[in-house]
Amino acid sequence: MQITFLGTSSGVPTRSRNVSSVALRLPQRAQMWLFDCGEGTQHQIIRSDLKISQLSRIFITHMHGDHIFGLMGLLASCGLAGNVERIDIYGPPGLNDYLQSASRYSHTHFSYPLKVHSIRPGVIYEDDEFTVTCGLLHHRITAFGYRVAEKDRAGRFDVEKAQALQIPAGRIYGQLKRGETVTLSDGRVIRGADLCGPTEIGRKIAYCTDTVYCDGAVELATDADVLIHEATFAHQDADMAFQRLHSTTTMAAQTALAGGAHRLIMTHFSPRYTPGNPLEFKDLLDEARAIFPNTDMAYDFMNYEVPRRREKQLSVNSYQ
C-alpha cells in the first residue's frame, strides 16, 4: 500500500502545490484508488509514476470545487484512452447529479462502466482484502472522511515444517495456510496456526479533510497506521479556522493523539504560509510535532509506503 500525494494546497493551487488529491496504490491487485480530485489531478497523475489505467475507485469527501473540479476531466480522459475497465465513485448526495449535468452539457460519453455511489456513514465497500468506511466530518457543507482497513491475514506458512510432518501438499496446504484445523487420513489433527507465523495485522489509513476538530475524525483515526488530515491554518489563526470550519495544525495533531494513530501526515495547507511569509511550513510542522511528534508534512508527489506493524516505520522528508 503506497500513498502518493497529488495535491496538498487548500482552495487554490500554487507554483509548487496543486489542490486536493491523494492516490492509494494497491500493487497486489494492480489497482489505484483516488481520494478527492481537484482541478489538474490528471496532469499530476501523468507527472507521477502512477498509471491511470489502474484507476478503479474514487472517493470524494465533499462538493467544494478544489476537491471535485478535476473529476470530469479525468473521467473523460479515461474514456478517450480506452484502457480503464470500470470506475466506482463514492461521495455525498449531489455528486451523481453534478457528473450527469457535466456529461450532458459537455456531450461526454463514457466507454467504460461508471457507477456513482451516494454514501452515508458506515461501510461503503468491502471485499476479501479491504473494508472502506466513511464518517461525517464538520465542515460548511456535508463532508465525509474515509477509513481504509486491510483485513488481517495469516502469517507465513512454514512449508519445510509441513514437509517434515509428511503432510500431503495440495488442498490441505491451502486450508492450513488459512489457519484451519485439518484431520489427516492417518488420524492426525494438524492446527494451521502451528504452521504459520504471527498473524499479519492489516494496515489502516484514515483520510480527513475538510473539517474542524470533531469526534467523527477521531473515530476514523482510531488506531490508524496513517492519518492524513488537513491542516489549513497555523495555531495562531484558530479563529479563522473556526469561522471557516477548517483545521489548524494543532487540531490535526490532537485528532491523531486522541485517535491513537501511529503517524500523522498533514496536507491541505493555506498558501498564506509559503516561504517568505512571517509563518512558513516548517513552523506549522513544529506546532503539530509539539503535540504529536510522529508528524510529517505532505508535499506534491511525496510517496509513503504504509508499513506493517511488525516492520520498522519508514521515514519521509518532513516538508518541502
UniProtKB/TrEMBL annotation:
NCBIfam families: PRK00055.1-3, RNase_Z. Keywords: Endonuclease, Hydrolase, Metal-binding, Nuclease, tRNA processing, Zinc. It catalyses: Endonucleolytic cleavage of RNA, removing extra 3' nucleotides from tRNA precursor, generating 3' termini of tRNAs. A 3'-hydroxy group is left at the tRNA terminus and a 5'-phosphoryl group is left at the trailer molecule. Its EC number is 3.1.26.11. This is Ribonuclease Z. The keyword Hydrolase applies. Residues 202-269 form the Metallo-beta-lactamase domain. Zinc phosphodiesterase, which displays some tRNA 3'-processing endonuclease activity. Probably involved in tRNA maturation, by removing a 3'-trailer from precursor tRNA. Its cofactor is Zn(2+). The lineage of its organism: Bacteria, Bacillati, Cyanobacteriota, Cyanophyceae, Nostocales. Binds 2 Zn(2+) ions. One of its GO terms (molecular function) is 3'-tRNA processing endoribonuclease activity. Zn(2+) 2 binds at residues 66-67, 210, 268. Belongs to the RNase Z family. Homodimer. It comes from the Bacteria. Zn(2+) 1 binds at residues 62, 64, 139, 210.
